[in-house]
């Protein structure tokens, strides 16, 4: 039997590459004769560069950038394609939630993402793809703009709280710094920058922003958006990664679905057609999985290839009806099999055990 293994990361425990390897190891325990094709996936968040490097090869350029609170932070830029013409940047490497730990979210800056973009441009890339997701910032991408040379009548590099009083933002120098490079914002998030469904209201609490601070901080983002380009702040995806989507749009970026971009890069549709079964996965399979997450995207590709898709997750938090609406035939949870304590103590081993159990049902 030919099995395509295409999971996302299991946030906080396993990278997508590690998850794919764990699933494969467990599957082989039950069905050693099956042919396994490993295709770790990403939707633009943490692991974006690693997944694409695994699939495309290319050169990884190491760089140290300013972290969300000013600390030196190691990161990488992937140069792929002919002569490194396409660069891939992972915003979470410079301002991810794992770097802030949910602390001081109001002063967390995306400055380091701008430094990554500058590194890609200086390396000669004609296209720079910025994976958006997993950020610990809510500064509307002001830090990114500052790193590329934008100026304003308020600090742009001090997080959303420091935008107080902003009335003018000049991004012309930032546009010149990018030059003729084509920018692509890789994200499946449809949120605008501000308002009821904006970056702060939707994602602020998970980054540590208290409920009573969301409205006043959102007002600061409103003023900032007006100073840059109010129209762009209303575009779908402007609120991605704490507003990095908005800042990239202000520099002329186009938006592409992250899961679609990665799926195309790794040739997932062709690999699904060559398989008998598709296995995907993520840390928590819940209602948010519909919003451009990897399992939903992989399931859609499996459906187009007329192949069944099953999911392995740390937790499964949706019912069978909702699961099938997302294109998943069956979903299995690590926690249900081994318990929460072992799931976190030995995530790879626990996931492998779940894969062994799943293979008993699905491998023929």
UniProtKB/TrEMBL annotation:
Q: Which residues cross the membrane?
A: none
Identify the Pfam families for this entry.
Gly_kinase
Q: Name one GO biological process term.
A: organic acid phosphorylation
Which InterPro entries does the annotation name? Glyc_kinase_flavodox-like_fold, Glycerate_kinase, Glycerate_kinase_RE-like, Glycerate_kinase_sf
Q: What is its EC number?
A: 2.7.1.-
Could you say which protein family the record assigns here? Belongs to the glycerate kinase type-1 family.
| UniProt cross-references to NCBIfam families, sorted A to Z | glycerate kinase
Protein name (Swiss-Prot/TrEMBL): Glycerate kinase
| Annotated source species | Nocardioides flavescens
């Amino acid at each position: 039997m030919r099995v395509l293994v295409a999971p996302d990361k299991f946030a906080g425990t396993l990278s997508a590459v590690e998850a794919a390897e764990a699933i494969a190891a467990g599957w082989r325990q039950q069905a050693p004769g099956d042919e396994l094709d490993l295709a770790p996936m990403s939707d633009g968040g943490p692991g974006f560069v690693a997944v694409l490097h695994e699939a495309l090869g290319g050169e990884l350029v190491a760089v140290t950038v300013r972290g969300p609170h000013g600390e030196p932070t190691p990161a990488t830029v992937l140069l792929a394609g002919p002569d490194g013409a396409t660069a891939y940047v992972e915003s979470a490497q410079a301002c991810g939630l794992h770097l802030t730990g949910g602390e001081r979210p109001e002063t967390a800056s995306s400055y380091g993402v701008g430094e990554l973009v500058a590194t890609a441009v200086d390396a000669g890339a004609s296209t720079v793809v910025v994976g958006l997701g997993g950020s610990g910032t809510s500064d509307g991408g002001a830090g990114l703009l500052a790193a590329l040379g934008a100026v304003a009548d308020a600090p742009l590099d001090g997080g959303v709280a420091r935008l107080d009083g902003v009335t003018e933002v000049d991004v012309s120098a930032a546009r010149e710094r990018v030059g003729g490079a084509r920018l692509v914002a890789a994200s499946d998030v449809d949120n605008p920058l501000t308002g009821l469904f904006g970056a702060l209201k939707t994602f602020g609490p998970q980054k540590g922003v208290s409920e009573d601070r969301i409205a006043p901080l959102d007002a600061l983002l409103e003023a900032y958006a007006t100073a840059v380009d109010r129209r762009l702040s209303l575009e779908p995806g402007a609120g991605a990664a704490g507003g990095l989507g908005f800042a990239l749009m202000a520099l002329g970026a186009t938006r592409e679905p992250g899961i679609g971009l990665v799926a195309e890069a790794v040739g997932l549709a062709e690999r699904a057609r060559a398989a008998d079964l598709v296995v995907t996965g993520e840390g928590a399979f819940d209602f948010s999985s519909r919003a451009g997450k990897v399992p939903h995207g992989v399931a859609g590709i499996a459906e187009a290839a007329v192949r069944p898709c099953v999911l392995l997750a740390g937790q499964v938090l949706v019912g069978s009806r909702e699961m099938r609406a997302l294109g998943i035939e069956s979903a299995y949870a690590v926690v249900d099999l081994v318990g929460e304590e072992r799931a976190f103590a030995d995530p790879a081993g626990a996931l492998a055990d779940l894969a062994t159990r799943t293979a008993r049902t699905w491998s023929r």
